[in-house]
Request: fold
Amino acid sequence: MKKHPTARRQTKKETAFPIAVLAGAVFSLVLGMALLALSCIPALSLADPLRFAPVFAIACLFVSAAAGAYFAARLHGKSGLACGVLSSLLLILAAVAMAGLFSLRIRTSLFMICAPAILIVSAVAGVCGVSEREPRAHRHKHAKIKR
Reply:
């Protein structure tokens, strides 16, 4: 069956899986750093900014991981669960590497809670990034011609 010549179906471009995962992780890192910089504004207005710094950092980490997973899944176009989890896993590995590079201490108990939670949130964001409604068929007002 031929498609109607005025059908408005657009084909989705798909990016290779490793490139989409890497792009999602890089997007997460850049967004996370920007969010951390922006979170300094409200943190410095508080009486004790160091007390609330971990809260702001964890919130920025979750938001950036979810956004990166969604971005990776949208780029790849399919297998959103794998894209989301792997891009966030790369983000977590990069955060651990940066902490080691700058000789920062990682709280093991907090890491054991946050890392699986980030992976779950990213898996959901990746699935949401792929699932999209099928475009509706273009309906013309004059589809039926009266004779």
About this structure: The helical segments are 17-44, 49-76, 80-101, 108-130. The two ends are 25 Å apart (CA to CA). Residues 80 and 130 are 5 Å apart (CA to CA).
